[in-house]
Specification:
Layout: H1 2-40, H2 47-70, H3 85-94, H4 96-111, H5 115-118, H6 121-134, H7 143-161, H8 165-219, H9 224-252, H10 255-271, E1 276-282, H11 292-313, E2 317-324, E3 328-335, H12 350-358, E4 363-367, E5 374-381
Parallel strand pairs: 1-2
Antiparallel strand pairs: 2-3, 3-5, 4-5
Length: 384
C-alpha cells in the first residue's frame, strides 16, 4: 500500500510540474502568435529567431523532465541560429527541429493537463486501495492509475519530442561541417609545421652541407688536410640532416607504427617518456590491426597525454590502456597527478587532440578534478 502511495505521489508531482509547464506553453502560444503577426508585418521579423530559441529552451526543459521520469534520454537535434538576420530567419523556419517542437507544443496544449484526471483518483484510491490492500492484502487498483497517467504523459512527450530523421540528419551534417573545418585547420597547421621543420632544420643543414662540399672541392688540390676536415664536417652535417628528416617523418606517420603496430609503438613511446608507464592492451594481439589513420590518431593521443603528464601532472607514473571494442578502438591514459587540466592557455594540446580525433568521428573525454589526477578517454570508431 505504502509503495503504491509513494509511486502515485511521485507521479502526481510529475503531472503537476507537467501541468505547470503546459500552462506556460498556453501563455507562450499567445506570444508566438504575436510574433508571427509581427513577422508577417516585417517590423517584428527579428523576433522570430529569438522566439525559436525560447521554444528550444522550453522543449529542452520538457525533455529533461520526461527523461527524469522515464530514465531514458531524449536527444536534441537543432541547427545553430547564427549569422545575419536573414540567415537566422531562414534557419529558424527550415530547421526540422522547429517543426518538431511546434508539433509538441500544439499537442501539449491538449494533453498537458492530465493532472486534472489524477487528482480525483486520490480520495478514491486512498479509500478503495486502503481497504483492498490494507485489509485484503491485494494489489492496489486505483493508485496505479495515477502512475499510468504519468507514464502516458511521458510516453506521448517522448514520441513528440524525439527528433525526426530529417532533424537528426541536419544535426549530423552540421556536426560533420564542424569536424571537417577542424580537420582542415589541423591539416593546414600540420603542413605549416612540416614546412617550418624542413625549412629551419633539414633544409638549412643541407645548404650548409652543399657549401662545405664546395669549399672542400676548392681546397682539395692546394690544402688536402683542410679539405678532409671540411669533408668530415660535411659528413656530420649529412647525419644531422638525416636526423632532422627522420624527426619530420615521425611527425607525419611514425615508422614504428608500421613496423611494430600500435601496441609496440605505444610501449616504445612509454619507455622514452620519462615516467613509469604501465601499458595494457586488450584484444590487440590477434593479428588484426586498425586502419592506419586510427592507429596514428591513437598514437598521437598517447604521446600528447604522456607529454602533458610529464610536464604538468607532477606524477611519476601513468597508465595507458588500449582496447579493441565492438565499434572501434578505445584509448585511456591516466595519471595520479595534480589534475586541473584545461583545454587552452597552457599548451596542453587537448584542443588539438580533440580536432585530430573528431576528424575520424571519434570522441575525447577529459576528467581532471583538481588534486585527483587526469584521465583522458578516447573512442575511435573503425571496422576491424
Amino acid at each position: 500500500m505504502w509503495k503504491a502511495v509513494r509511486r502515485a505521489a511521485w507521479a502526481t508531482v510529475h503531472l503537476v510540474v507537467a501541468a505547470a509547464m503546459a500552462f506556460g506553453v498556453w501563455i507562450f502560444i499567445t506570444v508566438l502568435l504575436i510574433t508571427a503577426v509581427g513577422t508577417l508585418a516585417v517590423v517584428g521579423a527579428w523576433m522570430l529567431p529569438e522566439a525559436v530559441l525560447l521554444i528550444r529552451r522550453i522543449a529542452g526543459a520538457k525533455r529533461q523532465l520526461t527523461s527524469s521520469w522515464t530514465g531514458r534520454e531524449i536527444p536534441e537535434a537543432y541547427q545553430s541560429l547564427d549569422g545575419t538576420l536573414r540567415e537566422r530567419l531562414r534557419t529558424a523556419v527550415r530547421d526540422p527541429g522547429t517543426r518538431t517542437d511546434l508539433r509538441w507544443m500544439v499537442a501539449y496544449y491538449l494533453y498537458g493537463a492530465l493532472v486534472v484526471l489524477a487528482l480525483p483518483l486520490w480520495p478514491v484510491g486512498l479509500v478503495v486501495d486502503g481497504v483492498w490492500c490494507g485489509l485484503l492484502r491485494r494489489r492496489a487498483l486505483v493508485l496505479p492509475l495515477i502512475v499510468g497517467l504519468a507514464d502516458t504523459e511521458a510516453r506521448w512527450s517522448t514520441a513528440l519530442l524525439m527528433p525526426s530523421p530529417q532533424a537528426r540528419l541536419a544535426a549530423r551534417v552540421e556536426e560533420l561541417k564542424e569536424t571537417r573545418a577542424d580537420a582542415i585547420a589541423a591539416h593546414g597547421a600540420e603542413l605549416r609545421r612540416i614546412e617550418r621543420d624542413l625549412h629551419d632544420g633539414a633544409q638549412a643543414r643541407l645548404v650548409a652541407l652543399s657549401m662545405r662540399i664546395g669549399l672542400a672541392k676548392r681546397a682539395y688540390d692546394r690544402d688536402p688536410d683542410a679539405a678532409r676536415k671540411l669533408l668530415d664536417d660535411a659528413q656530420d652535417q649529412a647525419e644531422q640532416a638525416l636526423t632532422e628528416l627522420r624527426h619530420v617523418v615521425r611527425g607525419i606517420h611514425p615508422p614504428i607504427l608500421t613496423d611494430r603496430g600500435l601496441s609496440g609503438a605505444v610501449r616504445a613511446l612509454a619507455a622514452g617518456s620519462g615516467l613509469v608507464v604501465t601499458v595494457d592492451d586488450v584484444g590487440l594481439d590477434e593479428g588484426v590491426r586498425a586502419p592506419a589513420a586510427v592507429e596514428a590518431a591513437a598514437y598521437f593521443v598517447v604521446a600528447e597525454a604522456l607529454t602533458n603528464a610529464a610536464k604538468y601532472s607532477g606524477s611519476p607514473s601513468a597508465d595507458v590502456r588500449l582496447a579493441r571494442t565492438r565499434r572501434g578502438l578505445s584509448v585511456r591514459v591516466r595519471d595520479e597527478g595534480r589534475g586541473g587540466a584545461v583545454e587552452s592557455g597552457d599548451g596542453s594540446g587537448i584542443l588539438g587532440m580533440r580536432r585530430r580525433v573528431a576528424a575520424l568521428d571519434g570522441t575525447v573525454e577529459v576528467t581532471s578534478p583538481v588534486g585527483e589526477g587526469t584521465v583522458i578517454q578516447v573512442e575511435l570508431p573503425c571496422v576491424w
